[in-house]
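yo, Metal-dependent hydrolase, beta-lactamase superfamily I is done. seq:
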Amino acid sequence: MHLATLASGSSGNAIVVGQEKRNLLVDCGISLKATLHNLSMLDISPMEVEGIFITHEHSDHVKGVGAVARKLKIPIYASAKIWDELNPTIGKLKDEQRVVVKDSFTCAGLQVQVFPTSHDSKESFGVRIEAEQATCGRQAIGIATDTGIITEDMHRALKGCDALVVEANHDQEMLWQGSYPWYLKKRISGNFGHLENSQLAEGLLQWIEGNTKRIVLSHLSEENNTPELALSTILRILKESRIAKENPDVRLRVAPRYTPHELIVLEEY
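structure:
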């Protein structure tokens, strides 16, 4: 299996997950032009993308979804309540491109398990994406990018994934000392907002297992966080636990805001 973020942050989010030459997009919050360009930077042909899953309806996750689906003639997977929000604005689609998702679905040879997150949208979801590998059995990639708290559903779905793309949105001190208005600070730090660096680290302590090799920190705030601070905070908490000693091969990286992360290819072991 492989994965990469195409863009990450409040200006737009998109992630590609796949195996061989079959791929699924998780969100498409950047333009059609940017989506195609960023895929090309990873040597992924648009013809190798077979569908788009929508985690929630906020514009930084759905900006380009209609245009991309029409251009590539691929289906969009979303919950019924998210479709209620998308339908008035997404533009013309064929009926077969509107796929309603409940708990799970299959696309591009991938099995996708959907689980709820806690965000101030109509509904919001993360995914655990699995595929059978020839030599090592099943591999799993977990994605959770917008949530104010870590839920039991997240614990169950993300535990033991081979790779994770997870939110490290803000540093608490930077947020409260920053220039955002009070209502926005409360929204971001609340139960339906975004995860703070140390919150995510506490989650990682429970999710990382022996097969976990790659973690990508995503959806960083441009004003209330920095890549260096997110990495140092999370690494410090992990190193103070048994996790670092028991899992020395885990690698943490930060997703770039506008450009794609290098393609991560999970080894078969």
